[in-house]
Description:
Elements lengths: L13 E11 L9 E12 L4 E5 L6 H8 L7 E8 L2 E2 L5 H7 L4 E4 L3 H4 L6 H11 L4 H14 L18 H13 L5 E5 L7 H18 L2 E6 L11 E6 L2 E7 H6 L4 H8 L32
Helix pairs in contact: 4-5, 4-6, 6-7
The site of adenosine-5'-triphosphate has 14 residues, from α1.
Amino acid sequence: MKPRAIDRDIEPFLRVRKLRATVAAPGHRPELGERELVRGIDLDVWPGERVALVGESGSGKSVTARGILQLDPSLRLTGSVEVARQQLIGAAPGTVRGIRGRVVSMVFQDPMTALNPVLTVGDQVAEPLRLAGTSRKEAMRQAADMLDRLGVPNARTRLGAYPQEFSGGMRQRVVLAAALIGQPSLLIADEPTTALDVLVQEQILDLIVRQSDELRLAVLLITHDLGLVAGATDRVYVMRSGEIVEEALVDDLFTHPGHSYTRALLGAVPTLDHDPEVPLAPVPAAGAEPEQCLPRSRR
Ligand SMILES: Nc1ncnc2c1ncn2[C@@H]1O[C@H](COP(=O)(O)OP(=O)(O)OP(=O)(O)O)[C@@H](O)[C@H]1O
């Protein structure tokens, strides 16, 4: 695929520097010290760019995402997170609330837990607009348009339905509609397709890509599945044990992976010609093999 033109000479929209996230030791035992979940990472997303943050389960991807938007009060955050040059670490809670859902939206893995079972789909999609002062009638009109745009059939008549009346894939469309209706500049999508079956996974990922192209929406796609990354994103960060071990344009990562961990992750991605009788290469545990990242010129 031809690389998309992303202007990286301008300021990134999201600029994360030395972000560190720690939690107190379990059981209120301060003598055990803190546990470091994210260890001083740097990460940029430019306007309109689609960036993947990949790594195996437990590597710290979701903590990073929740840290960027300060969604987990148990995390102690240090470092810098700038959104459109506005510093969020140490900012007043109102500043971060003003960014969430409006400037930066987030969708999560499980669409059911993201939706409130006692509120109608229409009310939930329209909520960001209602909070911003839009009349109910206008907010509902825009909610129907957004659901329609995201491929929910008979969107107008289904505004009064409840989430449990929708299939998993349709629920994730509803969650996306609620995330996009406030016209954010950045969508953080944390494993948005993991809970869905394979066909629906593709549809949801296609939708995210299409909305990103049409609305010039930047996307930070968080996934453990490198197989999702190739056609959908421009650049990739590889995360392991709370650290970024590699960053590359997507094509370079697949053709010349620099870090032994990235190569192991790539080895674990099934290909079309993969013989199902042959087991995929396991990803080694952290510390199990020498860490090495070859200089790009030597790959
Ligand atoms: N609030 C928290 N308190 C204590 N530990 C946490 C907290 N949130 C996450 N962790 C731990 O931090 C580590 C990283 O978790 P994280 O959810 O970021 O992983 P991940 O890379 O997103 O993997 P997955 O895809 O499985 O969610 C895990 O060991 C997790 O148990």
